[in-house]
Structures are given as structure tokens and as C-alpha cells.
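Late entry, evening session. Most of the bench is empty. Finally got around to the prediction I had been postponing all week. Sequence below, unchanged from the version circulated by S.P.
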Amino acid sequence: MMAADMRILSKRDDIGAFRRAVQDWLAEVVPPDAIQQMIDADEGEGVEIQKAWMAERNKVGLGTPHWPREYGGADLSMEHQIVLAEEFARTGAPVVPAFMISHNHLPGTLLSWGTDEQKARHLPGIPAGDIWCQGFSEPGAGSDLASLRTRAEKNGDKYIINGQKIWSSMAMYAKYCILLARTDPDAPKHAGISFFLMDMSTPGVEVRPIRQISGRSEFAELFLTDVEIPAENLVGPENGGWKVAQSTLASERGVISFEYIERARYAVEGFFKQAIENDAAWLKDDQLRREFIDQLVELQANRRLLRQLLLTDAYESAAGTMLPSYIKLHGAIFRQQYSSLLTRLEGLEGQRLAMGFEEVYFPAMFTYVSSFSWTIAGGSNEIMRNIISERGLGMPRG
């Protein structure tokens, strides 16, 4: 890999100069129609846009800005990451959901549990564009993940995997998968699970995209039939996968949600500006104006809260374990409520289910129907509330 252009990272000691360098670079590399390109792209084209954008980021050392330097990252502080999220959102730079597992879940797991060989084999490929997916949920084990039934049986120096996974984001484009499977069927359900790294090209791996109500197919089912995984791909101890998986799930730090809510800010501002210019009918309706302002308040409250939490040591406290759940819960609620309002404000024209890209809020109906999955994916809202009440507030289980 070529040495990174240091025009931005050389300014890391001066946050103002760092921001200006980021702004200058984005002005050069982000086309004015970047958002429209994302809206118009189908799934495959969208992945190619994301790969191209990651390659552009790598040129200036921002492919994995939050990673430690020894693994190819820039080791940037949370303050620097917030600047990047703000500026990516402001310019409408491409979002990279295809790389969420690669950039967050995998390193969050391997840096804590992986062997030196596993780190050396898998981490360098991610800045180069390797996409990973997640094989956790199953048809009968979603919110109650510990009930999973996919089996892994040890056979010499390999494990034989049989089972089914569901709701695996971007699995049809992934090179590798982080996988949970049951290695001891007789142990208590949390105690008999192991964590594996699986090559998606292995014989016996079948990927079936799931077409959603929005018309997109970013999720897939995985069918695993006598799939052989080398024993060296076991992460952590055998039957200790549940604890390993907690590191994986905890890696979804709030900076991801922060960039999303910043994009929502610019979408809201742009929509309101256009409504004024067009003298939109809803501006003359007292109730609709109140609803719009209510959502604007929610948006600003989420922005401020996320910024405050990210810049504190909340993750180091006992109550901090509820932070990812709190962020996820509030983000899902806002997506649904705001996109519902946006659909109604657009009137009959807004009722068309045109294809789009949910992260940029347009078209409105597409975003609205997509928003329901966010109350389930990654843990349902009900599960998030349980985590907040039990771990954060110390309340007893019902």
C-alpha cells in the first residue's frame, strides 16, 4: 500500500487546522452530486461507490482513523473522529454501511481476543477493501441470541458447521464472516457457544438475499452445510464465544450514530429551506409546523447528547455499558418519527415508494418503510430498554 498523503494527519495536534485540512480535501474529492449518486445506485453499485470512497480515504490515512497505528489506523482521538463525522455529513460524502462490521465489529473483537496470527492475517485487508458480514442471528434466535442452534463439531484440526443465519447485512458482498455456533449442546445456552472467522468462499456456504418491503436487499440468509472452518479460526476459547461476542457488540461506539444524526441535520435543513423557497402548503398548517419543530428539537437534542457522551469517559463507568443501547434506541425512534412526518409533509407525491438510500432520508417513503427495521436490527427497542433499565439504572428484572 502506498504511503498516505499526510496533509491532514500532520495537523492532528491543532484541531482547528485539522478540520480545515479535512474541509479542503473533501472539497477536492467529493462530487457535488454525491448524495444523488447514492440514491440512484442499486445495491451492487452502492457497494462499489463505498469501496471507491474508502480507497480515497486511505490515500490520506483516514480509511480506519480510529484504529491503533500498529494495525494500520491513524489512532485519532474521539474529538478528531467527531470532526470527520461532521465534515463527511456536511459535504454529503458517501456513507459506508458495507464496512460497518469490517471497521468496528471485527477489530473490536480481534484486538481483545484474537491471536497475533489472526490479527496479522485479517486486519491489513480491511483498509484494502475487505468486506465482512456477521453470522449471529438465526430464525429462532434473534433478540434471544443465546438460543442459537447452528452447530460446530470438532473434527481433528477443523470444525464442521451446520445451520442457518439470518439478517446478515451485506453478506452477498462479504469476503469473510464473524460467526457464532454451538460447540457444546449440553452446556447452559450461554456457555456452549464459540466464535469463528469464516471465509465466505468455503464450500457449503450459501447466501440468499432477502428482499425487503423497501425493495432493497441489503440483508441475506446464510445456509451452512458441512462447512469446514480451520481450528485456527476459533477466536477466544472454545465454548467461550458468548463473552467474545460481547466485545464485538460493544464495539458499535456512538460515533457511527453521530455521523448519521449529523446527516439528518443537513437533510432537515435542506428540506426546510426548500419548503420556504417553494412556499410549501404545510408551512401554513399549525399542527404540521408544530410536529416539524418537535422533530427538530429531537434532532438537536440527539446531536448534543451524542456529542457530550462521546467526549466523556462514560464508557469507562458501570453505567456506560448502557450507552450503545441508549444511542441505538433514540436513533431508531427518531428515524421512524421524522421519516413518517416527512412522508406526510410531501403529500401525495411523498407516497410513492421510489428506490433510495435510507441513510440520506430521501425519498421519504423509502426512508419511512426502511426505518421499521431499525427498531429490530441490532437488538429490538424492547431489548435496548431492558439493557438500559437493568445495566444502567440498576433496576431488577421483571
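Two things to note before I forget:
The chain has three domains: 9-95, 111-239, 252-392.
Residues 286-310 form the longest helix (25 residues).
Will write this up properly tomorrow.
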